[in-house]
Amino acid sequence: MTKHITKSGVMLLVLAFILVLSACSGGNGGGSNSGGKKDSGKDGKIKIGFSLDTLQEERWQKDRDLFKAAAQKLGADVEVLAANSDDAKQIAQAESLISQGVDILVVVPHNAEATAAIVEKAHEAGIKVLAYDRLIKNSDVDLYVSFDNERVGEMQAEAIVAKAPKGKYV
Fold first, then answer.
1. C-alpha–C-alpha distance, residues 118 and 115, integer Å
2. Taking a C-beta distance cutoff of 8 angstroms, is the pair 43, 27 a contact?
3. pTM for the predicted model, two decimal places
4. Is the dihedral of CA 11, 13, 16, 20 positive or negative?
5. Are the C-beta atoms of residues 78 and 19 closer than 8 Å to each other?
6. Where are the beta strands (DSSP E) in the chain?
7. Each residue of 67-101: pLDDT tens digit?
8. What is the C-alpha separation between 157 and 136, in angstroms, rounded?
């Protein structure tokens, strides 16, 4: 029997990876912003920028809350911005997070191609970018984390068969 990781477990793994990446960077971003990227926030905490496509759906509100809680438990601060499905707004918000000196930028892109500009700008500033749930195309994203589509299908089929073990399925 396979072992499943819950969504909160995935969030913790993502955050652990983020914290490791940030620690390994040594604050030596050497980006093109004024003076390069700083090590971390004023209080020494890692600062994570979380750029969401939208918060209009309950799913994204839950992800935001789980992410923030897990990050805070690990000693990081999270700045969350939602673009309400507006590409230009998401890019502008990400630029704001970059200018605030976030250590890591997590992006749930509205448009998989338009947000490549976010990755480029973050990398210029020495900031690692994690694409969450949706891939950012035409970019050199540092990490992509999503769900296992095949396993989701298997779980749906198992649930259907458990409810109706006999019959025709479409």
1. 5
2. no
3. 0.73
4. negative
5. no
6. 46-52, 76-82, 104-107, 128-132, 143-145
7. 999 888 888 999 999 999 999 999 999 999 999 99
8. 30
